Amino acid sequence: MSFKLGITGGIGTGKSAVVADFKELGAAVLSADDVAREVMAAGSPVLAQLRKTFGPQVIAPNGGVNRGVLGQLIFADPAKRQQLNQIVQPLIRSKFEDELTQLAAQHAFVVCEVPLLFEEHYENLFDAVLVVEAPAGVQQERVMSRDGLTRVAAERRIASQMPLADKLERADYAINTDGPEQLRQIQVQQLMNHLAEN
Ligand SMILES: Nc1ncnc2c1ncn2[C@@H]1O[C@H](COP(=O)(O)OP(=O)(O)OP(=O)(O)O)[C@@H](O)[C@H]1O
Ligand SMILES: [Mg+2]
């Protein structure tokens, strides 16, 4: 039997960094963002539907989705965000479940990065859920420097998500990434040991 750990948190809280730490320790990893990218890859039938719903500007010159344009559209407009989710989430979910089943058949420990784990109700796919947290100010600085956003734009993105406090309330485990890399890695190691013992 394989142990399946779901990882979520807010934008820029360090989910991908924590997943990379787990991978370093030998875990098999799956990213819902990667699955979403695959679902919306050039040539996928869903692109025609996105073009029809959101306009030709959401299609990039290479025929794939223009994530920047689509991101702007949906962050600015909750109704559009809901429309996008209705189109793509069922496809992402079904591909994600297939890939998770395959990995779990081959690996003892699988960790999955799922940014919308609670919002899209992925809880039941996992044996435990880990929320990666960082103080609001740190989260904001990271989003600003990594994505080149202004403070206001970063605040808006963070505010558009389910509050981190609500996610922490639903979590089985939490890791705080405020601090040096090494401290994060130690927490990951400790959690991995704990899960292996139980
Ligand atoms: N412990 C840490 N100390 C300093 N910086 C960190 C730490 N952990 C992560 N970071 C940095 O914070 C930024 C965001 O981290 P990461 O990409 O892992 O977040 P994320 O939660 O996966 O974000 P997203 O929601 O966009 O997928 C990265 O630039 C990363 O290098
Ligand atoms: Mg990430």
Automatic annotation (TrEMBL):
<comment type="function">
    <text>Catalyzes the phosphorylation of the 3'-hydroxyl group of dephosphocoenzyme A to form coenzyme A.</text>
</comment>
<dbReference type="Pfam" id="PF01121">
    <property type="entry name" value="CoaE"/>
</dbReference>
<keyword id="KW-0173">Coenzyme A biosynthesis</keyword>
<keyword id="KW-0808">Transferase</keyword>
<comment type="pathway">
    <text>Cofactor biosynthesis; coenzyme A biosynthesis; CoA from (R)-pantothenate: step 5/5.</text>
</comment>
<keyword id="KW-0067">ATP-binding</keyword>
<dbReference type="GO" id="GO:0004140">
    <property type="term" value="F:dephospho-CoA kinase activity"/>
</dbReference>
<keyword id="KW-0963">Cytoplasm</keyword>
<comment type="similarity">
    <text>Belongs to the CoaE family.</text>
</comment>
<feature type="binding site">
    <location>
        <begin position="12"/>
        <end position="17"/>
    </location>
    <ligand>
        <name>ATP</name>
    </ligand>
</feature>
<keyword id="KW-0418">Kinase</keyword>
<keyword id="KW-0547">Nucleotide-binding</keyword>
<dbReference type="InterPro" id="IPR001977">
    <property type="entry name" value="Depp_CoAkinase"/>
</dbReference>
<dbReference type="InterPro" id="IPR027417">
    <property type="entry name" value="P-loop_NTPase"/>
</dbReference>
<protein>
    <recommendedName>
        <fullName>Dephospho-CoA kinase</fullName>
        <ecNumber>2.7.1.24</ecNumber>
    </recommendedName>
</protein>
